[in-house]
Every structure is written in structure tokens, then in C-alpha cells.
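Continuing the batch. This is chain 6 of the set; chains 1 through 5 are on the previous pages. Same settings as before, nothing changed between runs. Recording input and output for traceability.
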Amino acid sequence: MIEHLEGILTSLTPAYAVIDCGGVGYGIHISLQTYEKVKNRSKAKLLTHLVVREDAHVLFGFSEESERVVFRQLISVQGIGPNTARMILSSLSSSELQSAIISGNLSLLKSVKGVGPKTAQRLLIELQDKMKLSGVGHTVSYNYSGANLEEALAALTMLGFSKVESEKVLLRIINNGGELPVEELVKQALKTL
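Output for chain 6:
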């Protein structure tokens, strides 16, 4: 919906930013990672994720695509909402979080405020394979695969396919064919589903 906002930073705190885009100020919830990257700037471009609730439309902002991809993966886990995902990304960088999940570092995950033993275990179970597929330290490759995987998964679920089954098929396609454009992932998945 709203992919990014670029404009003048009129207000900035470690958890919240206001960007003036053509006279309209957009309030965006940010992590400490993003705050550190934009704190000395007067202008900024933030990638966004819009969360629609019954009572509000809330924007979350990210200075890098890798952080947005990890945020989206986090909120796909049952029991982790956008605010908890933001808290996790404020405590650990995207690469630290990926390393912790891939290596199964349960104690590091539990050390994050708002993440208990059950939630930490769920993070490992649901995200370990996705993050192993992309590999640690390969953020360019990760961004590409992760973003394309998420986009293809969203397209298939909008078409009415089961999220769990679609994800399994997409992961199998990526394992066999490497990094593919979203359209190709969806086409190949439709042949299998």
C-alpha cells in the first residue's frame, strides 16, 4: 500500500518519527536500528509497512529493506504483533536476529523484552528454515529471496491457497531453482498447488 515515505524529519524519538511529505506529516513507529541510521539527518526516506487494525492504521518504518523483511517474517509468527517485532528489532540487529534463529540461540531470543520461552521457541520453529535458506551474512541475497518469497506467498494466499502449503511449495521451488522473480515463483507454485 504505502511502500516508502521520503521527506523532512520534523520530529524524531528513538521509537517514533514524523516525516513531512508535501505538507502532510506521517507518524511512523521505528526501531532503534532505524533511529540510529536517521538521527543526524534532516531528510529521510523510510520503507514502510502498514498495519490495519479496527481502531487504527499504523505505519512502521525501516531504514533498510533487510529490516523490513525480518519485521514481516516476525509478524507472520503467531503471537508476535508489530510492536513486539519492533521491540525485537530494537534489541537485536537484523543480522544478529538471523544468526540467533539459525543457530537456535534460545537464550538470546528469550533475553529480549516481551519474548518468553514459548514465543522464542515458536520463532525458532517457524523462522529457522526460512532464514537457513537465505544464509547468514548474505544480506543482498537474503533481501532478494526473503522479499520475493513473502510477496509470492501473499499473492498465493490472496488467490485462496493455504498459507502453510503455499510456503512449503515456494521454499521447495527456491531450494531447487535459486532466486527467481516473484512472477516466476507464483507461476511455478500454481503448477504444483
